[in-house]
Amino acid sequence: MTFGRFAPSPTSDLHLGNLRTALLSWLFARDAGLGYLLRIEDLDQQRVASAPHVAEHQVRDLAALGLDWDGEVVRQSDRFDLYRDASAGLETYECYCTRREIAEASRAPHGSYRPYPGTCARLTIAERAERRRTRPAAIRVRARDAVMSVADLHAGQVSGRVDDFVLFRADGTPAYNLAVVVDDGLQGVSQVCRGADLLDSSPRQAWLASRLGFQVPQYIHVGLAVNQSGDRLAKRDGAVTLGELSSRGVGVGEVFQTLRGSAGLPAAGSPTGLLRAVAGTDWWQTPAIWQPWVVVPEL
Ligand code: GLU
Hints:
Layout: E1 3-6, H1 16-31, E2 35-40, H2 45-49, H3 54-65, E3 74-75, H4 80-87, E4 92-95, H5 99-105, H6 125-134, E5 138-141, E6 147-152, E7 156-161, E8 166-168, H7 176-187, E9 191-195, H8 202-211, E10 218-222, E11 225-226, H9 242-247, H10 252-262, H11 271-278, E12 293-294
The site of glutamic acid has 7 residues, from loops.
């Protein structure tokens, strides 16, 4: 069996946009007859410590919405050894650049992501020894200007240049792009449904997946929730989490209806009912799934 998944970072409670992406990822997986996994992406232990219990809230809210998943919830913080082992055969190099140096040396950012300009790829042994004395090194993969193309259900073929992205941060923490690819590969994830903000990361991740010998998954990038100014929905945009909504008398059933309606999906009283309602149809052809969803506070 292969799987779809939802993989939240436990930095703050899930807001309506995250819940909508979760619902859609569940629906895509279950409608395709796949299993469904929940994975907590808690690589950044400092951020996790500053927001305790968020992961538990996320799991609770997803269950309250009526989603179910197969097996235990996996936490990336338990899997650092796997990321280390998986990356052992990759061609890598040490990088001593600070964020600022990268910003100064790189061309215009690509979205919020700055492709690495390759500064440390060309250091001599003497230069490397010198820098190693002053700064801890991050580890980057040597991608040799690879170009990778992925298939996205809505966006079609998406091609991107693969830069020498970070595998391990200077403090030794595995980086998101490494962990997500290793987990999806080892867990048998064949369908990656997530927010459209990650579409640009897909060629990079697919390239790494194929380097590590994993099957490249099918990608499905759905529309993001935005506020009325068109910016990504955030907690400051009002009552946007299940907890806040329920303290205003908005129950989880009403939230489900809002999410379902926002994606143009057929009438149903629960995710399981929705799964029955869409069975055998081309439900993903509805444009609302792919467009940004403008959230008006308090529903
Ligand atoms: N953990 C990532 C996030 O919350 C999502 C990763 C993914 O779905 O690939 O943005």
